[in-house]
């Protein structure tokens, strides 16, 4: 009984350790296995085994190696190896170790050995090795892109590394061509040159790359040769069976697509797709960096050109002035020549004065000599711009912000740049004097004929004796606070001055140190709004206007112009949402960007015109091109009007006055 328990414990130990034993009788070619060995090889316990049946279970790629090691072991060499076996078509890893057995006369009987299932460990080792190689690959790519001044040119070289690593045979890199609104093939591999020329240009929505560019989402295609998806036709014609395409995005901007294809297998695994995504992100960041560097170089070039031009323009009149002075000195400033010289010198001096006036105009903001450029504005838009400008500073100081926007438009007459500066200065002040983790709030409302805007915080507060002086130049609440971003005390003084120029007021309130502060701004509403109705100037009634445009700057600028004319404005950022908005909003006027991604402007206009709610709407095309040719083109497509970006106030008035 005791021996049976010991044998049972031994069997359990084998099972837990995933280690089986075996004995090979070479004289009779009989292989004896333990129960655990049968389990490891996936065969029924007791099934007859020979050396040949064992070898048949070994992975075909490893059989020659295992046989060679066994023959060497029979000659006395160590038998200790790792190899793969196939169990029900699945690959497993085992380690085998054995020693030879001899009879009393020293004749070879065979061998005794153990088999250990090391599949989990081996997979972990392979995964670790793959991870190390992946990280090395991404590090090389990142370093190469960081050092490269020609990211687009470097794509072909780095993608060759990626293809080798992923065991794939093709890649495609399309870039957005801004001037045409299409995709242009920047680099590729794995297809003939004549085929590359055929697919050099691609429209949004066409094939997989075009669909990725349109939707800005990754597409993975498996078993392409058997796919019924029409988008896979292009890659299938190139012999590609597995495909993955990523959008190249940076700061919300589409720059192109990057895709990889395999011709020898039907799918990529998740780890491989993750590598492609990481490479796409690195390429996107490098392209964005290069564009920023180019923009900085361009700005620096323009600055140098400006300084060179300024020096040239100043030097040109100085030379004749010097000559004139010399002539006057020698002639004693007498005679007709002297008069002509004086007139010439006056002209040159006038020229210098005009140049200096232009330079002073740039510095008038700092000197307080500000000339307002008034427009009809919605205070809600000004709030949005100021919050956008201040958000990074608020976040850096750890101050959260709550925004309470009025539902109705609050139209005022003012300089948009200066009023945004006012609101941004108040938000900046809240960020400076509110400890990290604090809170600020910006809100606006209509009070009679005025618009009121408040910026409140729960920061350090204002002592009672400082309240009358917070708007004085160079005033600070407490210079002993040692606040690194306390500034010079100019911001609030500028707020008061700018508001006074606009006929407005600002007031500071606080219950004392540590109790926060509130800044209240009052601005007069524009005359039509002050009397209670959003009426357009000249008696034109307000109209419901929908803007379908995917460029934030265009949407913002156009919305401001329309609201300045009293329009009720809604926006949609793609064609599909625009069509849906027509059904709920019932707009009288619809502005549509022709270059929308996905559903383009032409298709959106056709669908809107087919709706009962859009049948009588005025549909306006927004394009980057002007001129009669562009107008005729969009007119034939069914649009009522055409406007070239950026729209002017005259364009807006023309649209709002238009009747079908």
TrEMBL record:
Q: Does the keyword Phosphoprotein apply?
A: yes
- Quote the EC number: 2.7.13.3
Query: Is the keyword Cell membrane in the record?
Result: no
Instruction: Point out the coiled-coil segments of this chain.
Output: none
Which residue intervals define the domain Response regulatory in the entry?
Answer: 544-660
Q: Which residues are recorded with the post-translational modification 4-aspartylphosphate?
A: 593
Q: Give the matching Pfam families.
A: GAF_2, HATPase_c, HisKA, PAS_3, Response_reg
Q: Which UniProt keywords apply?
A: Kinase, Phosphoprotein, Transferase
What reaction does this enzyme carry out catalytically? Answer: ATP + protein L-histidine = ADP + protein N-phospho-L-histidine
Q: Which residues form the signal peptide?
A: none
Q: Which domain of life is it from?
A: Bacteria
SMART domains listed in its UniProt record: GAF, HATPase_c, HisKA, REC
Q: Where is the Histidine kinase domain?
A: 309-527
List residues of the PAC domain: 75-130
Quote the protein name from its UniProt record. histidine kinase
């Amino acid at each position: 009984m005791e021996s049976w328990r010991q044998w049972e414990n031994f069997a359990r130990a084998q099972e837990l350790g995933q280690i089986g034993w075996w004995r090979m009788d070479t004289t009779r070619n009989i292989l004896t296995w333990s129960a655990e060995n049968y389990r490891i090889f996936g065969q029924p316990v007791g099934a007859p085994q020979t050396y040949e049946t064992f070898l048949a279970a070994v992975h075909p790629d490893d059989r020659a190696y295992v046989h060679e090691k066994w023959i060497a072991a029979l000659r006395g060499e160590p038998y200790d190896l790792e190899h793969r076996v196939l169990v029900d078509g699945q690959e497993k890893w085992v380690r085998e170790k054995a020693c030879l057995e001899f009879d009393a006369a020293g004749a070879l009987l065979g061998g005794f050995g153990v088999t250990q299932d090391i599949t989990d460990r081996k997979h972990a080792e392979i995964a670790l090795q793959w991870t190390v190689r992946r990280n090395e690959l991404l590090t090389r790519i990142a370093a190469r892109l960081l050092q490269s001044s020609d990211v687009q040119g470097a794509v072909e070289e780095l993608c060759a590394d990626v293809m080798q690593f992923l065991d794939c045979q093709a890649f495609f890199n399309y870039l957005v061509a801004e001037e045409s609104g299409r995709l242009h093939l920047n680099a590729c591999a794995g297809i003939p040159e004549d085929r590359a020329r055929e697919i050099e240009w691609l429209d949004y929505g066409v094939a997989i790359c075009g669909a990725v560019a349109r939707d800005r989402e990754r597409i993975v295609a498996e078993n392409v040769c058997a796919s019924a998806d029409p988008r896979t036709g292009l890659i299938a014609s190139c012999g590609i069976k597995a495909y993955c395409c990523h959008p190249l995005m940076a700061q919300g901007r589409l720059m192109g697509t990057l895709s990889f294809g395999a011709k020898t297998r039907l799918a990529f695994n998740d780890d491989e797709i993750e590598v492609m995504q990481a490479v796409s992100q690195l390429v996107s960041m490098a392209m964005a960096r290069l564009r920023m560097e180019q923009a900085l170089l361009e700005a620096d070039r323009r600055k140098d050109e400006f300084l060179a031009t300024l020096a040239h323009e100043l030097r040109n009149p100085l030379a004749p002035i010097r000559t004139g002075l010399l002539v006057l000195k020698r002639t004693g400033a007498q005679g007709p020549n002297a008069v002509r010289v004086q007139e010439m010198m006056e002209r040159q001096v006038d020229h210098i004065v005009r140049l200096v006036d232009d330079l002073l105009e740039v510095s008038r903001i700092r000197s307080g000599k500000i000339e307002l450029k008034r427009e009809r504005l919605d205070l809600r838009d000004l709030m949005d711009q100021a919050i956008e400008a201040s958000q990074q500073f608020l976040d850096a100081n750890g101050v959260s912000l709550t925004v309470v926007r009025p539902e109705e438009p609050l139209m005022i007459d003012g300089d948009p740049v200066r009023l945004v500066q006012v609101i941004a200065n108040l938000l900046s002040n809240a960020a400076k004097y509110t400890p990290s983790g604090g809170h600020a709030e910006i809100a606006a409302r209509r009070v009679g004929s005025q618009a009121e805007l408040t910026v409140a915080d729960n920061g350090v507060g204002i002592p009672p004796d400082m309240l009358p002086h917070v708007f004085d130049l160079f005033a600070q609440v407490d210079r002993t606070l040692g606040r690194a971003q306390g500034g010079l005390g100019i911001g609030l003084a500028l707020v008061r001055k700018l508001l006074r120029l606009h006929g407005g007021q600002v007031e500071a309130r606080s219950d004392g140190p540590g109790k926060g502060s509130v800044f209240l701004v009052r601005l007069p509403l524009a005359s039509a709004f002050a009397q209670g109705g959003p009426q357009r100037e000249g008696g034109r009634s307000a109209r419901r206007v929908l803007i379908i445009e995917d460029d934030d700057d265009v949407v913002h600028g156009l919305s401001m112009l329309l609201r300045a004319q009293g329009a009720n404005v809604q926006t949609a950022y793609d064609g599909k949402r625009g069509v849906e908005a027509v059904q709920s909003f019932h707009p009288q006027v619809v502005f549509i960007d022709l270059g929308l991604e996905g559903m383009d402007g032409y298709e959106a206009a056709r669908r809107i015109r087919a709706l009962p709610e859009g049948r009588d709407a005025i549909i306006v095309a927004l394009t980057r091109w002007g001129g009669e040719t562009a107008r005729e083109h969009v007119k034939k497509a069914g649009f009522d009007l055409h406007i070239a970006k950026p729209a002017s106030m005259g364009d807006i008035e023309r649209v709002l006055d238009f009747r079908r």
